Amino acid sequence: MSSLLIQNVRIMDGEAADILIRDGVVSRIAPGIEAPDVPVEPGGGLIAIPGLVDAHTHLDKSLLGWPWYKNDVGGASLTAMIENERNMKKSLGLDPHVQSMRHALKTAALGTTLIRSHVDIDTDAGLRAMEGVMETAARLADVVEIETVAFPQSGLMIREGTAELMDRALAMGADLVGGLDPCGVDRDPKGHLDTVFGLADKHGKGIDIHLHERGELGMFSMDMILDRAAALGMHGLVTISHAFCLGMPDFQRVEAMLERLAALDVRIMTTAPTSSPAPLVKQLDAHGIRIGAGNDGIQDTWGPYGNGDMLERAKFVGLRNNLRMDAEVKRALDICTGGGAEAMARPRRALETGAPGDVVLVAGETVAEAVVTHAPRKLVVKGGRVTARDGATLVAAP
Ligand SMILES: [Zn+2]
């Protein structure tokens, strides 16, 4: 952990001040701080925001650095996309360590200092992806903090041997147990969820489940998830990613589910998708439900979109949720910084004493303008150490 004095920045577009980081933690924010023993970075009156947080991505599967991938599969069938990806990863010989280094450094250059990555576990590739992403996490520990989820992308019950691989991934240090559409992919919600919760219970770890199932089917799976979270006393330890079913039009049904989610302190991760129903920020905020946001996979066999920029993702959160007022746009950004970290049960990223010393300097007049234009990142600081300047990390990608 490092120490640094960042001089003359506007704290969340407010008054000019200096930020003193000592041993990786924000120790003081005030004008004219004197700290002769600490290196200095001039802030030049730029806006200071906390380090960005990508709370849902897939570092092992991006095709960054490869020639353009021509997508012939489309998005009509989840099963077809899963099969295609597993086969393409094998035929291309993708190296999960190299791909995760490229992806993590791309997003770190744009100000992300904390990532939760789902990592594929399947009977074709075994633990190769988890080993590669863990190697990246260790190598980039000073640049970006990476948390891993053991993710049964190809199904858990339909591919024998996957649960045993998940068990091994958790034993070797994966941070959370993943899951995926218990009805839609495995067509065995009881078997899938009993296995996921059984692994979490055995290893004493939290859960983050991809739930794309829409409407009543998603609500049915969500109820089964919450039954198990309640039975095992997993208050605050369960995350549901996507949760498209919460965007269904049945207001009373959704409100009742939100009450259940809030009572168990279940966290929701969203990409603020434009092509599907989605949980709504204001509705979740009214229930005090913690929300994080993520870029999900970027430039992979699933789709050509995504650039790893969580400031741009904040714009998508704002657009998807009709957040227009400056204070509302700041809430969209908070979901991509401090709120996202809290949803990951990590210390809140914030520009205040005692918070992690993760700071991003952005150009622009106001925070709302910086979000809307996803303004250039001039400086990124992680734990008091400068990690990127003018959109490029100091560590080179392979
Ligand atoms: Zn995902």
From TrEMBL:
Gene3D superfamilies: Metal-dependent hydrolases, Urease, subunit C, domain 1. One of its GO terms (molecular function) is hydrolase activity, acting on carbon-nitrogen (but not peptide) bonds, in cyclic amidines. Residues 45-387 form the Amidohydrolase domain. InterPro entries: Amidohydro_3, Metal-dep_hydrolase_composite, Metal_Hydrolase, Metallo-hydrolase_Enzymes. The keyword Hydrolase applies. It comes from Pukyongiella litopenaei. CDD domains: Bact_CD. It holds the Pfam family Amidohydro_3. The keyword Hydrolase applies. Keywords: Hydrolase. It comes from the Bacteria. This is Amidohydrolase family protein.
